[in-house]
Amino acid sequence: MSATDVVETAKGFWDIWGTPIYILGVIVGAILLRIVLHFVVRRIVERIVTGVKRRQRVADTQALSASPLHAVRTVQRARTLGSVLNNIFTVVIVVVAVLLIITALNPAITGAFSLITAALGAGLGFGAQNIVRDVLNGLFLVIEDQLGVGDVVDTGQATGVVENVAIRTTQIRDVNGTLWYVRNGEILRVGNMSQGWARVIIDLAVPYDAEIDAVQERMLQTANDLVDEDRWLPAVLERPEVWGLESISSEALVIRLVIKTRTSARDDVARELRVRLKEALDEMGVKLPALNSVVLSGFDGASSVKGARLTHAAPTTIAPPTPVKKPRATRVKPKPEEGAR
């Protein structure tokens, strides 16, 4: 067989199988490129997280809550950026692969495809602007570090722990376990309860005739005793303060006590302090007044979602309830009737 015959045979083979081979190569190349890019992003995120843990000498992300705050933010931001970058790479690779496959099937379609794209862009411009807004707003949310995976946030539409930040939506798990999908373009404000520090605010109602100075002194002493313990010392950033008499009503006097804490420990410190304040007032003989109603405001209860945080922690062991002994029923002997012997 001459060289000309070989060339003709190869040309005929390529004319028949060239397009399917090209399409298969595009698909395989797109899959491999996506795997490589995701592997690179994952390795970068892991190196950042491992580096932070090594510098803080901890083995678990949950332990970073007692470390400097910027370390926690670095870990959360790295994971969020990794999730967003993986989504962006996937979308770009799929779009480019589809365009290459369409061009291989019909090379003359590129010109018509440009016209179709222009027409669709003009016709769907108003419909697609919400998608574009979602994508751009999601990028700015991550770049500006407004929220991250593991943060406790209030977006107006939902309040809870951020579990995932995608290109178009953000997934938020609330305190009841409901997973909310919030469009990034609809997030007009973000209240992040995991950045910086938090403040425990306890408004304690005491009877109207209580001795204010003695109660305030005992409250401050109880809070200081709590802060000085080794268990609670890492969770507190500043010494407790009594801000004084907050309000006066016909039912009670309200005294405010505040403590500046780490964001992850605010609820734990508040619960422990309430118990100790109640015991301290009982020792003083101060009985808390019976208020007609209790109105919760702000984020009370919203940030109590530590169990949903995306961190590896040991499961909590719940002790079985203590059985309650029922009192024995005493039998009462009937009185003898009059005249009976």
UniProtKB/TrEMBL annotation:
Keywords: Cell membrane, Membrane, Transmembrane, Transmembrane helix. Its main location: membrane. Residues 311-341 are annotated as: Disordered. It holds the Pfam family MS_channel_2nd. It comes from the Bacteria. SUPFAM superfamilies: Mechanosensitive channel protein MscS (YggB), C-terminal domain, Sm-like ribonucleoproteins. The chain crosses the membrane at residues 20-41, 84-102, 108-128. It is found in: Cell membrane. Gene3D superfamilies: 1.10.287.1260, 2.30.30.60, 3.30.70.100. Residues 130-194 form the Mechanosensitive ion channel MscS domain. It is a multi-pass membrane protein. This is Mechanosensitive ion channel protein MscS. It comes from Naasia aerilata.
